[in-house]
């Protein structure tokens, strides 16, 4: 379980997170909110790129903020980014294996290759693991990003708009993969996305950020019917989704 208390981030005069308190239970949890609501900033705090001015984060009983950011990766924190991170010139397998590079206790040699192939199999990537990522199409590249987030033994998987720009059918496939991350890897997963059908399909519970504050949290279907949530999205394209 992840318990966040009174988390505040300031960038000069901007307060992208303003006294956020929220709890994520094991499973795949949703985090939604309009553009600029603070979702990516929240992930940046969890992964250690951004230091909050106040607040605490307990993950499975450990104090995350006192852990150096490189230790968080070793500990099992993984994330995808809104922009793809895989290196085009490297092979699919090397891009996924890279994540395990500096993790003490991570599988090496043949066992590492096996872990990489397991992750590729789990995400349903049928491309040749030894071809460069640069030769892949958009859908396959997204699957590589997700494979990088689930390889080995992740404990917390943060997915930042993993399906953005994908056609419906491919989003549905990705949704089935994301929904299975907890049972397959044992990790708690948090999904940020603007596609409400994806969030509904993957997440039994969802929290909503708006202007840096949590305005609703609970069962996804209830949250999406919440007046305040609908109002926060009014005038944005998501309301049609
Ligand atoms: N490094 C930064 N310096 C200053 N302001 C920033 C920085 N990063 C983000 N912000 C501001 O913080 C607020 C939250 O941004 P954030 O990227 O977390 O939103 P988001 O919910 O992920 O939006 P989107 O759905 O568009 O990805 C925005 O007002 C943004 O302009
Ligand atoms: Mg974002």
Which structural traits does this protein have?
2 domains; binds adenosine-5'-triphosphate; globular; six-stranded mixed β-sheet; Rossmann fold; 9 helices; 10 strands; four-stranded antiparallel β-sheet; 241 residues; binds magnesium ion; alpha/beta
Structure description:
The chain is an alpha/beta fold. The chain has two domains: 2-76 and 154-240, Rossmann fold (3-Layer(aba) Sandwich), CATH 3.40.50.300; 84-152, no CATH class. Helices cover 37% and strands 25% of the residues. The chain has nine helices and ten strands. The radius of gyration is 18 Å and the shape is globular. It binds adenosine-5'-triphosphate and magnesium ion. Residues 39-40, 82, 160 line the site of magnesium ion.
Number of domains: 2
CATH superfamily of the largest domain: P-loop containing nucleotide triphosphate hydrolases
Taking all Cα atoms into account, the compactness measure Rg is 18 Å
Which fold name fills CATH's third level, the topology of the largest domain?
A: Rossmann fold
- Low-pLDDT parts are none
Gist?
This protein is α/β, with parallel strands linked by helices. Helices cover 37% and strands 25% of the residues.
Task: Outline the fold blueprint.
Layout: E1 2-11, E2 14-24, E3 28-32, H1 39-47, E4 54-59, E5 62-63, H2 69-75, E6 77-79, H3 92-97, H4 109-123, H5 138-150, E7 156-160, H6 168-185, E8 188-192, H7 196-202, E9 205-210, E10 213-219, H8 220-225, H9 227-233
Parallel strand pairs: 3-8, 3-9, 6-7, 7-8
Antiparallel strand pairs: 1-2, 1-4, 4-5, 9-10
The structure holds adenosine-5'-triphosphate and magnesium ion.
Residues 11, 14, 16, 33, 35-41 line the site of adenosine-5'-triphosphate (ATP).
